[in-house]
Design goal:
InterPro entries: LRAT_dom (IPR007053), Papain-like_cys_pep_sf (IPR038765). The structure is a single chain. The protein has 267 residues and is of the alpha+beta class. The chain has eleven helices and nine strands. It has a six-stranded antiparallel beta sheet with strand order 1-6-2-3-4-5. The chain has a three-stranded antiparallel beta sheet with strand order 7-8-9. Helix 6 crosses helix 7, helix 8 packs antiparallel against helix 9 and helix 10 packs antiparallel against helix 11. The longest helix has 15 residues. The N terminus and C terminus are likely disordered.
């Protein structure tokens, strides 16, 4: 795949807005939608045919987060997704719709775009391999300097984690943005101290500096921390194949991750 395809996410966003129309979406896109007055965003991987694979906390079905439909009523589009994936022709079974143990990847689900957006408005495209200047000019949780893999690899990881599960949901270490970034890059953090999520890391860093001293220097230091925490420049980022990811997390050991992965040095 040539460089133009590899950089397509970066080339499709603007400095002032990452907003994207549904007609512009491509399979393998990392998309997000803002919630509650732009206070946070929900992220996922667009897999084509009006479907998104995403990660959320709590007990959910494989096909639909129960909190999106408290009455357990599927929308028409999600009901069709469920039917297709349960079809024996697709290697599925009715048991795949059962609610799984939330301690082991229960939060990975596939829904239609409408349920992903969930009445919160527009869709936005997460940008990869952006310049330092572009990165610092954007809100945290909207882009990264890391390089994205080709769409076919992104889709493989997303569907693999949908089938086999991901780790336990953790707002600070394993959230929806972390899940989507992993699908796009195959990267994990060796230390386990923090996740890949620039959205959470940026907000925490900013709040700490502002609480100490609401000055221009505090703003600058906050942005420096945000830059250093980005997965695209971190030296403790390691590539771990999706087939080995769960085993690595279950071991809860940075050395295991380091052995399974290959050092990510091609920034």
């Amino acid at each position: 795949m040539d460089g133009g395809d590899m950089n397509r996410d970066r080339d499709r966003v603007r400095l002032l807005s990452n907003r994207i129309e549904r007609s512009e979406l491509k399979p393998g896109d990392h998309i997000y939608t803002w919630r509650i007055a732009y206070s946070y965003a929900h992220h996922g991987i667009y897999v084509g045919d009006n479907k998104v694979i995403h990660f959320t906390g709590g007990k959910v079905t494989k096909f639909l987060p129960s909190r999106f439909h408290p009455a357990s009523a599927y929308c028409q589009a999600c009901a069709e997704i469920k039917r297709q994936h349960e079809s024996p022709a697709n290697g599925g079974s009715a048991k795949e719709a059962d609610i799984r143990d939330s301690s082991h990847g229960a939060g990975v689900c596939i829904t239609c775009l409408d349920c992903f957006v969930h009445n919160w408005g527009h869709l936005y495209l997460y940008a990869y391999e952006v310049s330092t200047k572009f990165f610092l000019g954007k809100m945290h949780g909207t882009c990264t300097m890391a390089r994205a893999d080709p769409p076919e690899k992104v889709l493989h990881r997303a569907f693999y984690l949908l089938k086999h599960g991901y780790v336990k949901y953790d707002l600070f270490k394993h959230n929806c943005e972390d899940f989507s970034i992993y699908c796009k890059t195959e990267l994990v953090i060796q230390s386990y101290i923090a996740g890949l999520s620039n959205q959470i890391q940026g907000k925490i860093s900013h709040a700490m500096y502002m609480a100490a001293d609401n000055s221009i220097m505090s703003h600058i230091m906050s942005e420096i921390d945000r830059y250093k925490s980005d997965i695209g420049v971190r030296k403790d980022a390691t590539r771990v194949p999706v087939e080995k990811l769960l085993k690595a997390y279950e071991q809860k050991s940075a050395c295991i991750v380091g052995c399974l992965g290959r050092a990510y040095v091609d920034h």
